[in-house]
Specification:
Number of strands: 22
Structural class: alpha+beta
Oligomer: single chain
Number of helices: 12
Distance between the termini: 57 Å
Shape: globular
Largest sheet: 6 strands, antiparallel
Radius of gyration: 30 Å
Strand content: 15-25%
Length: 505
């Protein structure tokens, strides 16, 4: 932990990231395999990495917040509500809206109460914020006076005025070896709760994937999935934030919309839908399984299970931040599939799951990677679980025996050729262990590794077998043949664009 340091430049190469840092001891350089930008909405990591931050800015709204004392006899000792004469009770910690704006009262333990207002279309000022200004704002919002006194204690105390707000999402959460999480990746103008939930899930999603990459156990594409999954969640939160902004705006039309919305909230399915949206758990990740169980891809449900040690909540079993396999089947066949992988997966045999759920493989971030609903899972369901863990290895084991001219049929190939997508030491170890020589291209190494001499033969053979379902261009390995097609295509596309622009002008 280095405090008092400032990043002044970020540079990447194939192996690591270099940071130019200025601190109490002067300038220095730090080098790391990966860098995570968790430095807030004004992230310098994001800016130095050239990652855009598009979105919407709001300039009509003014938020005022202050630590202050309120009349003690106006506070209900039972529920903590602030009862304001002429207006009525305001429950603590909950936003309170009127046709003129918003008000909230937050009596945090050990601190003076925090009062806040939100107003629209207020004149701007450069004058310092005062308690008198706070009282005037409350009077405009509630229509009555709320006397405020100086806060108790030594502080620090809040007394601020903020104008405008932003809802923005980075155009990508990963740039090679640089990642963005939290407010560095997304900010929302309406409240901090949804954004906090989203940022925590960013960290949980990226943490276990980076750990796997650093230990050379990450399969191809695992780090790329962080950007795909979390930007999907961020876009859902944009929907939530903009809808909340619309529902908190002043005016009688918004009041009518809120009344209608309140009627909808009497339905349990609506409440559950909005709760999942606010928590950021309504997003379904793609797990690469054909026709998956309805739980796959979603955040794991809250379950109370019965194990040999007694009743336990699923959340308690997930505290180790390791992959977790829950076997709820009748024949215990689910646990048997990964029994040899207990060094990488926690196995729990339990009972008490709801109907239609007999097995769960849960990622370290709490999302379901695989699930089944059969009391006795069939081979296809178990194969999907097995494939989720060791797709490459089981693909090799599925190769049929090949007869040779003499001797026994060969069950496995002598060598395996693969591109940079499989450049993981774990795969090399697994192949050597099975007597197979891995010929896998290295990341960061220029092309002409020799794989093409084998790859093109295989792809050309596939083209012959599949006929017109394959591009005929794959029959030829000469670069000039490719250029003969790509060059004219680029010229035609460019000509069409230029012609369209000329017509517009």
């Amino acid at each position: 932990m280095r405090r008092g340091h400032r990043v002044s430049a970020v540079a990447q190469d194939e192996d690591a990231v270099t940071l130019d840092v200025t601190g109490p001891d002067g300038d220095q350089q730090l080098r790391a395999r990966y860098v995570v930008g968790a430095d807030g909405a004004r992230s310098v990591i994001r800016k130095f990495s050239g990652i855009g931050f598009p979105g919407v800015s709001y300039d009509r709204r003014t938020n005022r917040t202050a630590h202050a004392t309120v009349p003690a006899d106006w506070v209900d000792p039972v529920n903590g509500a602030l009862t304001i004469p002429g207006h009525g009770p305001v429950l603590p910690f909950l936003p309170h809206r009127t046709d003129q704006g918003g008000f909230s009262y937050a009596p945090f333990p050990g601190q003076p109460p925090l009062v806040s207002t939100t107003e629209w279309d207020q004149p701007t000022t450069d004058e310092p914020m005062t308690l008198a200004e706070m009282e005037s704002s409350i009077r405009r919002v509630l229509g009555v006076d709320l006397p405020l006194g100086p806060p108790d204690g030594t502080g620090p105390h809040v007394l601020r005025r903020l104008t405008g707000g932003n809802t923005r999402v980075a155009d990508r959460f990963r740039d090679r070896r640089v990642f963005l999480v939290g407010d560095a990746a997304h900010v929302y103008a309406s409240g901090g709760g949804p954004g906090l939930n989203l940022g925590l899930q960013d960290a949980a999603n990226l943490g276990w994937k980076l750990a796997a990459a650093l230990h050379d156990t990450a399969p191809p594409g695992l780090l790329d999935s962080y950007d795909t999954e979390r930007r999907q969640a961020a876009r859902r939160m944009v929907l939530n934030a903009e809808a909340q902004s619309a529902l908190t705006a002043p005016g009688s039309d918004t009041t009518a919309l809120r009344e209608l919305f309140t009627e909808l909230l009497t339905r349990k399915v609506v409440v559950q839908h909005l709760a999942d949206l606010t928590a950021g758990t309504d997003v379904r990740y793609e797990m690469g399984i054909t026709d998956p169980h309805h739980a796959v891809g979603y955040f794991a449900p809250e379950l109370e299970l019965i194990t040999e040690a007694g009743k336990v909540r699923l959340a308690e079993l997930s505290r180790n931040a390791r992959p977790l396999l829950i076997d709820l089947s009748e024949d215990r066949s689910v646990a048997a599939v990964l029994a040899k992988d207990q060094d990488a997966v926690d196995l729990v045999i339990a009972q008490g799951a709801p109907a239609g759920l007999t097995g769960l493989l849960i990622r370290p971030d709490g999302y379901v990677a695989w699930a089944c609903g059969s009391p006795r899972p069939d081979p296809a369901e178990l194969a999907a679980l097995r494939g989720g863990r060791r797709a490459l290895v089981h693909g090799l084991e599925a190769i049929p025996k090949i007869k040779s001219l003499t001797g026994r049929p060969r069950h496995r190939p002598r060598r395996l050729f693969a591109d940079r997508g499989y450049d993981v030491d774990k795969y090399r170890r697994l192949l050597w262990k099975r007597g197979i020589k891995p010929v896998i291209a290295r990341r960061g190494v220029p092309h002409a590794s020799g794989l093409g001499a084998v790859r093109w033969v295989v792809e050309r053979t596939n083209a012959w077998i599949h006929g017109f379902r394959r591009l005929r261009i794959r029959w030829d390995i000469r670069d000039d043949i490719h250029a003969a097609f790509l060059g004219p295509a680029c010229c035609v596309l460019t000509y069409r664009c230029v012609r369209a622009l000329a017509q517009l002008s």
